[in-house]
Amino acid sequence: MTSGKDILNDSARNKSTAFSRKEREQYGLRGLLPFAVADLETQKQRALENMRRKPYDIERYIFLNALLERNQVLFYRTLIDHIEELMPLIYTPTVGQACKEFAQIFRRAQGFYITPDDRGDIYRILGNWPELDIRMIVVTDGERILGLGDLGASGMGIPIGKLSLYVAGAGIDPKHCLPVMLDVGTNNEEIREDPLYLGYPKPRITGEAYDSLVAEFVDAVQSRYPRALIQFEDFLTPNAYKLLNRYRDKVLCFNDDIQGTAAVALSGIYASTRISGYDFKDLRIMFLGAGSAATGIADLLTSAFEAEGLSNKEARERLWFVDINGLVVKSRSDLMPHNLPYAHEETQLDFLAAIDRIKPHILIGATGAPGTFTTQSVERMARHHDRPAIFALSNPTSRAECTAEQAYNWSGGKAIFVSGSPFAPVTYQSQTYHPGQGNNAYIFPGIGLGALACGATRITDGMFLAAARSLASQVAQNQIDNGTLYPPLPALRDVSRGIARAVAKAAMDDGVATAPSLQEVDAYLSDNWYDATYTSAP
């Protein structure tokens, strides 16, 4: 028999002081709560006041995480209503510090952990998860957490944070969400040898041992949760591409670092043309960094250029890469397979010389290395174009290629600036700019929601193109006038619904949707929308 104490200890059912007198009597809660009956709004204000008293963001993260563990509805109501304030705390940039300190701040397990010792048992142990109807899975192996590198099992904060944004940003019920850590070891000796480390304390498994464990996980998900979408998150570039290429045409999945980043960047590029006045099809774009995020953006840009009538060759000629060894050209022998399509017949040049030679309209940073956009590089971009776009996409904020203030100052106020993590408004010569945050949170919730709503069997490039166009179309002119390329975060739920419908339509066009019409998609969105309110019964 369920006791009142059991209800209070169940975060999905706990309403705490919001239980009515009748409910307190009915569920054995009399005496277990203070006398006052508080409504959800009062509880939310109390939570916010307590959180705001904390002197550091990591302490605010810990407070919010504890609130999620204690009262799920209250956590999500607070997050939904104050997402602009709280998203930087529950996700980038604070989640980076939380992952680095995961072992030190751990309170209570929230996700699902799979190690090499679970080989052969993954399907069976997934049955230990209390919910049966899982529809959204975010999984990482912790090898490339944001720009912080290999954090092993401490990277679990990423799936937890992403799924919180699925709930808050796209109305997906928390009971349908499952965060997963493929804890296959870590090559970070400092973490591995920490006596507080909570993960599999061995070097990472690789090769066939790694591939077969991932394959068993994917197969187990297909059997136990046939409606689930798998989102791969923060895998090292070679594994990220390998897993995406292996599974994208077989199961419902996508890689957010490759495809989600690509869509949010493409949306920003579309929106930037409303400021610069350039035709999208005429843009030249240069990337600093040639990992999974950068090449993922380039792959989607290729499709976008082709949709404008360019040939594949013409599309790729507009996309240039610079990595640690300089311009990516065909004469180099050190390129990875995903870089080869973007290797041009050109002289080997360093970063600054490449800017002068190519004269890109847009410079995109996806390096994970702070300060790599220098004064000289931004000045040269502004020398070649009246309104150059500077996308400093690396997360967290401490890893951004440059700050908003630097971009505006170094360009003489010409730059159209976008970052992956938030920056405050900047005033330059009496003009106040509101830098856009090109965060994947604008894209992946709508992609996932749209895929679920239309019963997609696969995620196609067309669905990401549709998501980027939908997001760009939802930027109001007054935001464009302030230099902002993305909608305000408080509009995220509406934005995600708009993206979901566009994604569902694209899935239907691509023949991967099982829903017969957009009317059925709309019905799914209405019937399954989670709005974080208390029900009459726990």
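(ticket continues) Second input and output from the same batch:
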Amino acid sequence: MQKILLGIEGMSCAACSSAIEHYVGKQKGIESVAVNLVMAYATIVFDETILTKKQIEGFIKQSGYKSTGIYKPEDSKRSLKKSKINLAVFGVIAFLLLYISMGSMIGLPVPYFIKNSKVVLASVTLGLTLPLIFYGADIFFRGIKNFFRLHPNMDSLVTLGVFASFGFSLYSFVMVCLGNAHYVHSLYFESAGIIIYFIKLGKFLEALSKDKTKSAVKGLVEITPKSAVILRDNKEVVVSLDEIKKGDIVVCKAGEKIAVDGEVIFGETHVDESFITGESKPAEKSIGSKVIAGSINFDGYIKYRAENIGRDSTISKIVNMVVEASNTKMKISRIADKASLVFTPVVLSLALITFAVYLIAGYPFADAITTFTTILVVACPCSLGLATPVAIVVSEGALAKNGILVKNSEVLERVNKVDTIVFDKTGTLTTGKLTIKKIVSTCQDEAMDIAVSMEKASNHPIASAFKDFAKENNVEGKKADKVQEIGGMGIVGEVGGDKVFVGNKALMDKFGIEATQNLEEEMTVVYVAKNKSLIATIYLEDALKENAKAMVENFVRSGIDVVMLTGDNEKVAERVAKELGIKKVFASVVPKEKAEIIKRLKGDGHIVAMVGDGINDSPALTLSNVGISVHTGTDIAMNSAGVVLMSDDLSRLGGLFLAGRKTVRNIKQNLFASFFYNALMIPIAMGVFRFAGLTISPMIAALAMTLSSVTVVLNALRLSTMNLGGKYGKSNNKN
């Protein structure tokens, strides 16, 4: 199966996205279709052996809409510019139509030759209305097409309303031309024309608001420089990003941006990676360090080898992750989906019933047709369709800016229900970097010389502690021969002709070397033996991450159970747990056992979040209700978590919980506002409150419909100002 993201043109409401999903989804070879109304694209999973991109675009066209090709977040600017020009031109026509039709009613001067002749007045208003009808041709085309496909949407309602108003006015125009002057009072050309203009204006304002929701994604797309300097034949050459190939040597000077992901091969510097990690402190970079496209080189001159380019780059992966996550649906959004499916047919039925009742009750045909039009125009499901997706896009954009990547929007809903949070220890609660704290030996120099010599040949995390010690203390070490690594125990080999052993007590026991344990073994212990005689006991410690203790305290205070899982021994685990204030600890567990513990917690009825490093914790992350990976590298795609923290700052977990709570609350507010608007405006449009003098015209109905959609979008945009450095868990309940 293959996944493709296609831009969609012409959608106006939730019924539009539902129509595409329904029609395209039932075609042979289509696995799934998810349409994002806000971002205007569809995520389609299909069988590439059966279908091609061109065939899928054909299905979209057959459903009444147009594919704009592979989705690009930056493509909306040209469309908005064209819409702005059209609005200005047709705005002048709409103003003239309104002025000539209604100016004399409120005492405004109207040219005498128009005001004095009913035929001229009717002809001029018709002439001004026709361009506006042409302006709305795309609305009518989609509306009629969706009627025939039995998937009527907002365009269908507007089409019916405008055609009814225009058709009746056209009949009155003919009667005026035939000499029946009193029919001039039954001309509603201005209603038909102004409705179209207000609908177009509403779509433009809505598009502007939606465009703001895409700003975080666009910011990521545009963060990389347009060009870079690479070395060719030892000469610096300026090239565009498209010209950089994997393996090219790229030069970056102080103040410039890193062009592509790569590895430093020359120089040292500090770079600002806050756009991706949310960490304001510049990161140190030297030979062997990884650099990320878009980060800013502060103070050094470096050369780096290009590694990940184009769609494989970190930025591209983040953009794809944010975009795809915005197209997943929360359970709460299904309320709007179900409502939009029945909404249009119900509104159409109400309009027809009201039209019939008005005629039966003896109201003039003009009143009946005006009321019919008003109901169709005012009852637009636009705001209902926007209620959920705009909030999700804005929230996930805000999270991405703060170094929190959400792969699936359901996470924002689930995180509110979490009652148990499980942490891996090493690399999650602790730095994952062991340091030597104490050496017990009668011949320390010889012991450390042996240990450093042996650990140079190992890639185990413990080895890095000895390498750091060697660097800090100028210990050169010797050449180690016949090195053999024994999994879970240590390494054996020869140094200077002596048989040496460096590892834990299990290694010493295996080779019959006496090694005693003591209370200090709350730390990680490494023994060094030469020719089967113990010569040193070395104690190592993994430091706690900054903010880890405060984070745990806040989760506990908010009523969330905190659990720690670790493969370390019980004494080490208990020391770390005691320091952090964690009461539930599972020690000496392998990845498979971690997954079993998660399964058991869920079986006991708990909603579980698992926080790990995303590699050996993959089974547990997958099984948890919310999997959170603490990540500091560039490969963000190869883990099983639903959330990726792009820095090791655990305080960002609070931002995730806070965003989840505020997003769900915002969606509920939007849904309430949408339902309340329709519950209020439809009865008014039907004339239920006519006895109290409360009625609205089709033009006011179009304006009200526009304002309802804009209100929902503006409410969702409040999420962009979230302070994601707030309290953790459920303790902070204020929006």
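Agent notes: Confidence is low (pLDDT under 50) at residues 633-638, 728-735. The chain is about 50% helix and 20% strand. Closing as not reproducible unless the customer responds.
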